[in-house]
Amino acid sequence: xxxxxxxxxxxxxxxxxxxxxxxxxxxxxxxxxxxxxxxxxxxxxxxxxxxxxxxxxxxxxxxxxxxxxxxxxxxxxxxxxxxxxxxxxxxxxxxxxxxxxxxxxxxxxxxxxxxxxxxxxxxxxxxxxxxxxxxxxxxxxxxxxxxxxxxxxxxxxxxxxxxxxxxxxxxxxxxxxxxxxxxxxxxxxxxxxxxxxxxxxxxxxxxxxxxxxxxxxxxxxxxxxxxxxxxxxxxxxxxxxxxxxxxxxxxxxxxxxxxxxxxxxxxxxxxxxxxxxxxxxxxxxxxxxxxxxxxxxxxxxxxxxxxxxxxxxxxxxxxxxxxxxxxxxxxxxxxxxxxxx
Length: 341
Fold this sequence. Notes:
The protein is mostly beta strands. The protein contains 6 helices and 15 strands. The two termini are about 25 Å apart. Strands 1, 4, 7, 8, 9, 12, 13 and 14 form an 8-stranded antiparallel beta sheet that branches.
């Protein structure tokens, strides 16, 4: 395994999705979960971020899933995302990561980021919604080594496209079972987005990537939202302030390890190297504040300290289990894009 990996790619010019392309800068704003609770904007609360790979006849793909809104009733037959919600997934493929410098940091966070103050997304996948809840995907791919503000935006059509034999990217939006392996979340649903991206186009040389996500909705005092990255970190009391800053600012402003998912695609995906859907992060992280509430119904073998999800995950995209209850047959929206980045 290489300890020092650096990447510089000019990828914007190779986008061939046959979709509208507009060069532009990109940015993201986010706030803290307590503000979302106080203003009853639970749709913007992020509950899970998973990053892993899967291989098949079509090649090897990077899978990213993002879960939102822990308040959806288990009896919900459908779910409509609000039209003022923005969900963004960020990928930094330009930051060097050392896996051997500090074994304790690697065991807790997945590795040591060599220049944490210069973390910057090279790829941003942003989902917004129209008045009917139909999703629109905007992808920003930056040029150069991450220091440039230039980029390209590619906007997806709002209608489902027919799956082709060898699609380059797939994108899912819809109601799914909550993948959080935790007692209080058994039997619950969430609003999910999922991406299946060609790994050799995201990390052509097998270099590590950094992944994080944000949500954003309007608020009385301005935009508010949530930050999602390493499991069981930014939502816990000592680290709520992480939600006010970008990962680079976690280091430069707060003086702490940036809250991102570190993923080395040359190693198996298992927390904290990425995060598989099957990773029981409650036990893996071992936070006493979470462990103490992982058994809401003592004596119930299903809800007490689970080590597996209550519903089986799928073996194919979008991998998340089908929704609970009346919505079991719901499929959500599946988009396919043919071509290269």
